[in-house]
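Notebook entry, structure prediction.
Reason for the run: the old model in the group folder had no record of what sequence produced it. Starting over properly, with the input documented here first.
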Amino acid sequence: MSSGASRSHVGRTAIADNSRVLSNKRQDHDSITRAVLCPSRIHDRGFPMIETTARNERPKSRTTTADSYDNIEPWFDRLAELDTGDAHRLVMRNKVLQLCMPLADHIARRFAGRGEEFDDLQQVARLGLIQAVDRFDVHRGSSFLAFAVPTIMGEVRRHFRDRAWSVRVPRGLKEIHGLLNAATEALSQRFGRAPTARELAAELDVDLYSLTQALVARNSYRAESLDRLTRVDGQNTPLAVLDGLGADEPCYALIEDAMVVRPLLAALPERERHVLTLRFFGYQTQAQIADRLGVSQMQISRILSSTLNKLRAQALGECSDPAQ
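New structure, fully documented this time:
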């Protein structure tokens, strides 16, 4: 090969290499630009669902083992070198969040099945991950995994403590309630039976009254809907809980009648009121009342009949009065 042809071949090779370098730089620049310009989507609770990283930058593996987080600390070294307002720092932060997102989801699954929706637990765990990423200091020497796991679990436990209760319960009772399951299981294995309240109080080193209040508060953790269907014995069709609650109380009608009759009794003459008292409150017969008052039984019968008819007419007249 001649020297001129050799120089031409070297020149074309250099131009091709430069073109590839420029093309790679252009692709990297375009990838970062798309990541910066793509706004983060906001969940209905206000937690950012981190989706701002370019597609070709997403990790190929999403395993949740500890080995996948061994090389996460160098990312925090790069984050510390960038200013807070630097757009590249936001891209790198989102990259770290995406790499660690399976960790938050794994912790959320550990708390599933305790009465809370998994989607809510997942969002709370991801919020804890965001706080762990923002607060982690790589210069302290500890690994990110050792810092992130307690932070995320603490956020989920705080959610159960402060927001999962249907009724507001004092914090001290919530703390005792959180220890009841473990203490009950330990004492059951020790005694071979269900522990009593006194045994639980001694195990937890709390007074019996506080433990009793915590046991009562356990029923307030999750409120049951009155529209919840339940099956009644002897019926094939399930009924709502509300349909099986309450009954007509006859005493209410008696109270209403007493409130109507009381002022009418007070307005009666002394003799008529005395006869009614002996007959209906003293449970005496007409003959006994007649002997006591020194009159005939016929007179007592007439007094009772006329008095009752008058009271009945007055009471029914007041109940039918539009002003009432």
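Summary: The chain is about 65% helix and 0% strand.
The old model has been moved to the deprecated folder.
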